[in-house]
Amino acid sequence: METKSNHNTSTHFNLIARILHWLMALAILAMLFIGVGMTTSLSWRPWLIDLHRPLGIAILLLAILRLINRIYSPIPPLPSTVPRWQAFLAHLSHWVLYALMIVLPLLGWAMLSAGNWPVTLVHGWDLPPIAPNNPIFYAWLHSIHCVLAWLLFIVVLGHLSAALLHALIYRDGVFSSMSFMKNKKNK
Known about the structure:
It is built from four helices and two strands. By secondary structure, it is mostly helical. The protein has a two-stranded antiparallel ribbon. A hairpin with a 2-residue loop joins strand 1 and strand 2. Helix 2 (45-72) packs across helix 3. The protein is elongated, with a radius of gyration of 19 Å.
């Protein structure tokens, strides 16, 4: 899969990748804030849960589309100025992000199934359960979901930090490869 990036001469990700990236960035940031809000506000909790469930499923579907696009579309190579260890961490963090964007919604769905709660997308449309009703299993899944949500928060912070470093300090075209701006790395 990664070998495709070696043959790409483009300095930008394809349009689908860029649209999905920014749409998912907004959805994931919203989801992280909603998740924190659900744990800190009893009065807003029901409303936030009603947002959290369909947004999680939307992130799952978008992540699958994004992964398919990533597999079948070449990605721009990193500049030769990026040290190998940073390139390794960049690729690793991207695959960790893909895994979390898929695993977290599935865990949430399974957790709710184990707790015998519906995953309501819109009023009257519930997803089928994907785990048996079991309070102990629910508790395990809830704990794992929370730990992985914090891991997602940490990885997103790292990703954002690296993006800003490349955009504001290095100005090497890495950030602009995912943006809708023209690449100014040759100036």
